[in-house]
Every structure is written in structure tokens, then in C-alpha cells.
Amino acid sequence: MTRRIQQRRSPIHGNGVFAKTAIPAETEVIEYQGERLTHAQADRLYSHTTESGHTFLFTLNDRYVIDANQGGNVARWINHSCEPNCRAVLEEHGKGNTKHDRVLIETLRPIGEGEELTYDYGITLEDRLTPRLKKIWACRCGAKACVGTMLRPKRKRPAAAARS
Length: 164
Description:
The chain has 164 residues and is mainly beta.
């Protein structure tokens, strides 16, 4: 699978992952790998990193997080975009052992040779989403519909009431 992609410098941010060849839509590209930590372990190790705007943690399920800082692969370099060409798909372990659930990165549409792979991180923080935190977690995707932050809103705003 990794013969289709390569890591290199990204115009979005730092490192990125690019298609070495054309990749069809709905194709599994790579598994997001790393050490499995409980949420409590991840909190102990990384609670101070909220202010960094950078993470290699991926929420796997209610119990576990994937820590790509430890045993991670090239998938950790796939950048965020508000108009992604890939998505993260959770594959649950068939026998119910949630520690063995997996996250697969799959294309949403055909990807051209040389195109950067991206997905929507949908980062959720326990902290209140202040303008300062939104700036720390700023999105640099450059998409027309960019929302300016990688952070997912805590709640949706109510729809505007119709006026007569």
C-alpha cells in the first residue's frame, strides 16, 4: 500500500503525504498506526500539549487512543483539510477487543499523481474553544470553504428563525 504514497514537505504544513501514482476513489491507502494508549494514559502524557497545535494522537474508541509518536507510520503526516480528499474509517475488531480496532485512511474521490492526501481531523478538545485556542489550532489548508481551525465545534448553532 505505501508504494502508492510518499512523505515530503507540504505547502499546507510541515510534512505531508502525496500520491506517487493515481489512486481511485474509495481506496484504502494506509492504516494509521501507533501505540495503543488508554485515554487516561494519553492525558497523563500529553495534557500539556493542547497549547502546541500539534498532535499525533487519534481517538480510536471510547477506551483507546492511537499514539503515532510511538510506532507510528507515514499516515501521521497526512495533513488536515476542510475540503479533504480522504477520510478516516474506523474498523472495529471482529471479536469485540476494542484495543485491536483500527483506523484506515481511505480516498473519498480519485487522487491524482502528486496530489497531497488530506482528511478532516475533527479535533475535539475538553477546553472551551476560545479565539486563542482556535488560533493555536489554525487550519492552513487554503480551501475555499476553510473554517480557519482544525477544531470541531462543541455544538451546532441553532438555525436562524424564519422571518415573515
